[in-house]
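User: structure tokens for Retrovirus-related Pol polyprotein from type-1 retrotransposable element R1 4, please.
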Amino acid sequence: MGLNSEIIRIIYTAVIEPIMMYASNTWAPATELEMIRSALSSLQRGFAIKICRAYRTVSLTSAMILAGLLPLDLRIREAEALYKAKRIIDGLSSTRKELEKDIANTERPHPAKAMSIEYELVDESDPDPLKIAGPHLHGRQQN
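Assistant: Done. Predicted tokens:
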């Protein structure tokens, strides 16, 4: 019997992946080595087989596809790319002052004056012409 496949998936995504992804941006270049990819794949293979409830003779690729898991080496490279992108954005924070100019609160328009709510008549035969339908406010037209 064993554990339910969804519980194994939760354990994998909540425990195993975060442990393997910890500080992955520093050791992500090592995932290009076959030895590292093999170690990551062997760890992931057992979980993938248990998640998709396949026989142990199933290939790693098939088990990963059936389990809906992304290979760890790709997840690690993805995390590295996100880290680098965030670092570039943080590096631009000094030049951000040129992109965005800070405006004093006294120079900004008052919110009551800046915002206007438009009303429109939805249907003349409607007994309640003023109603809220979804995110829009519909009502009588202003003169």
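User: Anything notable?

Assistant: Residues 72-91 form the longest helix (20 residues).
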